[in-house]
Specification:
The chain is an alpha/beta fold. It has 10 helices and 14 strands. Helix 6 runs parallel beside helix 8.
Length: about 300
Protein backbone atom coordinates (compact mmCIF):
# COMPACT_ATOMS: atom_id res chain seq x y z
CA UNK A 1 0.00 0.00 0.00
CA UNK A 2 1.41 3.43 -0.96
CA UNK A 3 2.04 5.50 2.14
CA UNK A 4 -0.42 8.34 2.74
CA UNK A 5 2.37 10.93 2.99
CA UNK A 6 3.38 10.20 -0.62
CA UNK A 7 -0.22 10.50 -1.79
CA UNK A 8 -0.46 13.82 0.07
CA UNK A 9 2.64 15.04 -1.75
CA UNK A 10 1.13 14.11 -5.10
CA UNK A 11 -2.10 15.88 -4.10
CA UNK A 12 -0.16 19.09 -3.38
CA UNK A 13 1.54 18.94 -6.79
CA UNK A 14 -1.80 18.42 -8.54
CA UNK A 15 -3.32 21.36 -6.63
CA UNK A 16 -0.45 23.53 -7.89
CA UNK A 17 -0.96 22.58 -11.54
CA UNK A 18 -3.72 25.08 -12.50
CA UNK A 19 -1.72 27.91 -10.91
CA UNK A 20 1.42 26.91 -12.79
CA UNK A 21 -0.59 26.88 -16.04
CA UNK A 22 -2.31 30.16 -15.25
CA UNK A 23 0.84 32.13 -14.41
CA UNK A 24 3.25 30.58 -16.88
CA UNK A 25 5.38 33.35 -18.50
CA UNK A 26 3.71 35.96 -16.29
CA UNK A 27 5.73 38.52 -14.29
CA UNK A 28 5.62 38.25 -10.50
CA UNK A 29 7.22 40.96 -8.33
CA UNK A 30 8.32 39.84 -4.85
CA UNK A 31 9.04 42.54 -2.27
CA UNK A 32 11.41 40.96 0.19
CA UNK A 33 11.92 42.48 3.65
CA UNK A 34 11.46 42.08 7.39
CA UNK A 35 12.91 39.33 9.58
CA UNK A 36 13.15 36.94 6.62
CA UNK A 37 16.12 39.03 5.47
CA UNK A 38 18.02 38.67 8.76
CA UNK A 39 17.60 34.94 9.43
CA UNK A 40 19.85 32.85 7.17
CA UNK A 41 17.49 29.86 7.13
CA UNK A 42 14.46 31.99 6.22
CA UNK A 43 16.53 33.83 3.60
CA UNK A 44 17.40 30.51 1.93
CA UNK A 45 13.73 29.45 2.00
CA UNK A 46 12.55 32.68 0.36
CA UNK A 47 15.20 32.46 -2.36
CA UNK A 48 14.39 28.77 -2.97
CA UNK A 49 10.72 29.75 -3.41
CA UNK A 50 11.56 32.44 -5.96
CA UNK A 51 13.93 30.10 -7.81
CA UNK A 52 11.17 27.47 -7.97
CA UNK A 53 8.76 30.08 -9.41
CA UNK A 54 11.38 30.83 -12.07
CA UNK A 55 11.96 27.17 -12.89
CA UNK A 56 8.23 26.37 -13.33
CA UNK A 57 7.86 29.19 -15.87
CA UNK A 58 7.06 32.36 -13.93
CA UNK A 59 9.12 35.52 -14.46
CA UNK A 60 10.00 36.73 -10.97
CA UNK A 61 11.61 40.06 -10.04
CA UNK A 62 12.84 40.58 -6.46
CA UNK A 63 12.76 44.07 -4.92
CA UNK A 64 14.41 44.31 -1.50
CA UNK A 65 15.14 46.84 1.20
CA UNK A 66 17.57 46.58 4.07
CA UNK A 67 16.46 49.07 6.74
CA UNK A 68 17.58 47.00 9.71
CA UNK A 69 20.96 46.29 8.12
CA UNK A 70 21.40 50.02 7.32
CA UNK A 71 20.63 50.91 10.97
CA UNK A 72 23.22 48.35 12.10
CA UNK A 73 25.93 49.87 9.91
CA UNK A 74 25.01 53.45 10.84
CA UNK A 75 25.54 52.44 14.51
CA UNK A 76 28.68 50.50 13.60
CA UNK A 77 30.40 53.61 12.25
CA UNK A 78 29.32 55.58 15.33
CA UNK A 79 26.63 57.76 13.72
CA UNK A 80 23.45 58.60 15.58
CA UNK A 81 20.29 57.91 13.52
CA UNK A 82 17.83 60.83 13.55
CA UNK A 83 14.08 60.48 12.99
CA UNK A 84 11.36 62.95 12.00
CA UNK A 85 7.72 61.77 12.18
CA UNK A 86 9.00 58.22 12.70
CA UNK A 87 11.05 58.32 9.47
CA UNK A 88 14.85 58.11 9.42
CA UNK A 89 16.53 61.31 8.25
CA UNK A 90 18.92 60.36 5.44
CA UNK A 91 21.73 62.90 5.37
CA UNK A 92 24.58 62.66 2.84
CA UNK A 93 26.69 60.33 5.04
CA UNK A 94 23.72 58.07 5.81
CA UNK A 95 22.86 57.94 2.11
CA UNK A 96 26.40 56.81 1.34
CA UNK A 97 26.16 54.01 3.93
CA UNK A 98 22.63 53.04 2.77
CA UNK A 99 23.76 52.64 -0.84
CA UNK A 100 26.81 50.57 0.16
CA UNK A 101 24.82 48.33 2.52
CA UNK A 102 21.99 47.79 0.02
CA UNK A 103 24.56 46.92 -2.64
CA UNK A 104 26.15 44.39 -0.28
CA UNK A 105 22.75 42.81 0.57
CA UNK A 106 21.90 42.77 -3.13
CA UNK A 107 24.99 40.81 -4.14
CA UNK A 108 24.45 38.33 -1.28
CA UNK A 109 20.99 37.60 -2.73
CA UNK A 110 22.42 37.31 -6.25
CA UNK A 111 25.00 34.80 -4.97
CA UNK A 112 22.29 32.78 -3.20
CA UNK A 113 20.17 32.58 -6.39
CA UNK A 114 23.20 31.65 -8.49
CA UNK A 115 24.10 28.89 -5.99
CA UNK A 116 20.70 27.33 -6.77
CA UNK A 117 21.45 27.21 -10.48
CA UNK A 118 19.51 30.24 -11.72
CA UNK A 119 21.14 33.25 -13.40
CA UNK A 120 20.56 36.47 -11.47
CA UNK A 121 21.57 40.10 -11.95
CA UNK A 122 21.50 42.67 -9.16
CA UNK A 123 20.76 46.28 -10.05
CA UNK A 124 19.81 49.50 -8.30
CA UNK A 125 17.12 51.93 -9.41
CA UNK A 126 19.92 53.95 -11.02
CA UNK A 127 20.75 51.26 -13.57
CA UNK A 128 19.18 51.93 -16.93
CA UNK A 129 17.36 54.90 -15.37
CA UNK A 130 14.98 52.42 -13.71
CA UNK A 131 13.78 54.64 -10.83
CA UNK A 132 13.70 58.39 -11.22
CA UNK A 133 12.57 60.39 -8.22
CA UNK A 134 12.32 63.70 -6.40
CA UNK A 135 12.86 64.63 -2.77
CA UNK A 136 10.09 63.29 -0.53
CA UNK A 137 8.89 65.47 2.34
CA UNK A 138 7.29 64.19 5.55
CA UNK A 139 4.39 66.47 6.50
CA UNK A 140 6.27 69.30 4.80
CA UNK A 141 9.54 68.54 6.62
CA UNK A 142 12.82 67.75 4.88
CA UNK A 143 14.04 64.24 5.77
CA UNK A 144 17.13 64.34 3.58
CA UNK A 145 17.89 62.07 0.64
CA UNK A 146 14.62 60.14 0.72
CA UNK A 147 13.04 59.86 -2.72
CA UNK A 148 9.53 59.75 -4.10
CA UNK A 149 9.32 57.94 -7.46
CA UNK A 150 8.33 60.14 -10.41
CA UNK A 151 9.06 57.77 -13.30
CA UNK A 152 9.91 54.11 -13.87
CA UNK A 153 11.76 53.01 -17.01
CA UNK A 154 11.36 49.20 -17.00
CA UNK A 155 13.42 48.51 -20.15
CA UNK A 156 16.39 47.11 -18.21
CA UNK A 157 14.05 44.66 -16.42
CA UNK A 158 12.39 43.51 -19.65
CA UNK A 159 15.83 43.02 -21.22
CA UNK A 160 17.02 40.90 -18.28
CA UNK A 161 13.83 38.81 -18.22
CA UNK A 162 14.05 38.24 -21.96
CA UNK A 163 17.60 36.89 -21.54
CA UNK A 164 16.35 34.56 -18.78
CA UNK A 165 17.92 36.41 -15.84
CA UNK A 166 16.22 36.90 -12.48
CA UNK A 167 16.50 40.64 -11.71
CA UNK A 168 17.13 41.64 -8.06
CA UNK A 169 16.55 45.35 -7.44
CA UNK A 170 17.51 47.59 -4.53
CA UNK A 171 15.64 50.87 -4.20
CA UNK A 172 18.15 53.66 -4.74
CA UNK A 173 17.26 56.11 -7.50
CA UNK A 174 18.29 59.56 -8.69
CA UNK A 175 16.65 62.92 -9.39
CA UNK A 176 16.96 65.29 -12.36
CA UNK A 177 20.30 66.54 -10.98
CA UNK A 178 21.48 62.89 -10.64
CA UNK A 179 21.65 63.09 -6.83
CA UNK A 180 21.13 59.68 -5.15
CA UNK A 181 18.01 58.98 -3.08
CA UNK A 182 16.95 56.12 -0.86
CA UNK A 183 13.41 54.97 -1.74
CA UNK A 184 10.97 53.04 0.42
CA UNK A 185 11.16 49.41 -0.80
CA UNK A 186 7.37 48.92 -0.67
CA UNK A 187 6.89 52.01 -2.88
CA UNK A 188 9.59 50.78 -5.28
CA UNK A 189 8.02 47.30 -5.54
CA UNK A 190 4.60 48.82 -6.30
CA UNK A 191 5.96 51.22 -8.92
CA UNK A 192 7.97 48.44 -10.61
CA UNK A 193 5.01 46.02 -10.55
CA UNK A 194 2.84 48.67 -12.22
CA UNK A 195 5.49 49.53 -14.83
CA UNK A 196 6.06 45.91 -15.90
CA UNK A 197 2.34 45.10 -15.76
CA UNK A 198 2.94 42.34 -13.22
CA UNK A 199 0.35 39.61 -12.82
CA UNK A 200 1.18 39.41 -9.11
CA UNK A 201 2.91 41.48 -6.45
CA UNK A 202 3.80 39.73 -3.17
CA UNK A 203 4.88 41.57 -0.01
CA UNK A 204 6.96 39.42 2.35
CA UNK A 205 7.05 41.08 5.75
CA UNK A 206 6.56 40.39 9.46
CA UNK A 207 2.77 40.29 9.38
CA UNK A 208 0.62 37.31 8.52
CA UNK A 209 -1.86 39.27 6.42
CA UNK A 210 -4.98 41.34 7.02
CA UNK A 211 -7.22 40.55 10.00
CA UNK A 212 -10.84 41.51 10.54
CA UNK A 213 -9.93 41.70 14.23
CA UNK A 214 -6.24 42.29 14.91
CA UNK A 215 -6.48 40.59 18.32
CA UNK A 216 -7.98 37.39 16.90
CA UNK A 217 -5.66 35.28 14.69
CA UNK A 218 -8.67 33.27 13.46
CA UNK A 219 -9.99 36.32 11.57
CA UNK A 220 -7.27 36.33 8.89
CA UNK A 221 -8.91 37.31 5.59
CA UNK A 222 -7.74 35.11 2.69
CA UNK A 223 -9.09 37.25 -0.16
CA UNK A 224 -10.33 40.82 -0.44
CA UNK A 225 -11.63 42.90 -3.32
CA UNK A 226 -10.35 46.48 -3.49
CA UNK A 227 -13.59 48.00 -2.15
CA UNK A 228 -13.45 45.61 0.83
CA UNK A 229 -9.84 46.66 1.55
CA UNK A 230 -10.85 50.33 1.36
CA UNK A 231 -13.74 49.68 3.76
CA UNK A 232 -11.38 48.06 6.29
CA UNK A 233 -9.22 51.20 6.30
CA UNK A 234 -12.21 53.54 6.39
CA UNK A 235 -13.95 51.68 9.21
CA UNK A 236 -10.82 51.52 11.36
CA UNK A 237 -10.25 47.75 11.25
CA UNK A 238 -6.63 48.22 10.21
CA UNK A 239 -4.23 50.68 11.74
CA UNK A 240 -0.59 51.66 12.15
CA UNK A 241 1.89 50.38 9.58
CA UNK A 242 -0.77 48.25 7.88
CA UNK A 243 -2.56 51.32 6.44
CA UNK A 244 0.24 52.42 4.03
CA UNK A 245 0.89 48.77 3.08
CA UNK A 246 -2.77 48.17 2.25
CA UNK A 247 -2.98 51.53 0.46
CA UNK A 248 0.04 50.51 -1.64
CA UNK A 249 -1.76 47.26 -2.54
CA UNK A 250 -4.91 49.15 -3.57
CA UNK A 251 -2.90 51.64 -5.68
CA UNK A 252 -1.00 48.82 -7.41
CA UNK A 253 -4.25 47.08 -8.39
CA UNK A 254 -5.82 50.32 -9.60
CA UNK A 255 -2.75 50.79 -11.83
CA UNK A 256 -3.02 47.38 -13.47
CA UNK A 257 -1.49 44.70 -11.20
CA UNK A 258 -3.85 41.73 -11.11
CA UNK A 259 -3.38 40.40 -7.56
CA UNK A 260 -1.42 41.62 -4.55
CA UNK A 261 -0.44 39.30 -1.69
CA UNK A 262 0.57 40.20 1.88
CA UNK A 263 2.56 37.34 3.43
CA UNK A 264 4.48 36.50 6.57
CA UNK A 265 8.07 35.91 5.48
CA UNK A 266 8.79 34.26 8.84
CA UNK A 267 6.71 31.24 7.78
CA UNK A 268 8.91 28.91 5.71
CA UNK A 269 7.79 28.77 2.05
CA UNK A 270 4.85 31.15 2.61
CA UNK A 271 5.31 32.40 -0.97
CA UNK A 272 4.78 28.93 -2.47
CA UNK A 273 1.85 28.16 -0.18
CA UNK A 274 0.13 31.43 -1.12
CA UNK A 275 0.64 31.11 -4.87
CA UNK A 276 0.14 27.36 -5.36
CA UNK A 277 -2.67 26.40 -2.96
CA UNK A 278 -6.37 27.14 -3.08
CA UNK A 279 -6.70 28.78 0.31
CA UNK A 280 -3.23 30.30 0.49
CA UNK A 281 -1.63 31.43 3.70
CA UNK A 282 -1.73 35.25 3.70
CA UNK A 283 -4.13 37.83 2.28
CA UNK A 284 -4.70 38.35 -1.45
CA UNK A 285 -6.17 41.65 -2.65
CA UNK A 286 -7.88 41.46 -6.04
CA UNK A 287 -9.37 43.72 -8.67
CA UNK A 288 -13.12 44.27 -8.53
CA UNK A 289 -13.58 41.78 -11.38
CA UNK A 290 -11.03 39.34 -9.91
CA UNK A 291 -12.37 35.92 -9.03
CA UNK A 292 -12.00 34.60 -5.51
CA UNK A 293 -10.35 31.20 -5.85
CA UNK A 294 -10.85 30.13 -2.28
CA UNK A 295 -14.63 30.40 -2.16
CA UNK A 296 -14.95 28.27 -5.26
CA UNK A 297 -13.25 25.43 -3.42
CA UNK A 298 -14.97 25.67 -0.04
Amino acid sequence: MVKQKYLDKAEVLIEALPYIQRFNRKIVVVKYGGSAMLDDELKKNVIKDVVLLKLVGFKPIIVHGGGKEISRWVSKVGMEPHFINGLRVTDRDTMEIAEMVLGKVNKELVTLVQSLGVKAVGISGKDGGLLQCRKKLSNGEDIGFVGEITHVNPKVLFDLLEKDFLPIVFPVGFDEEFASYNINADDAACAIAEAVNAEKLAFLSDIEGVYKDQNDPDTLISELHVHEAEALIRDGYVGGGMIPKLQNCIDAIEKGVNRVHILDGRIPHSLLLEIFTNKGIGTAILREDGEKYYHEHE
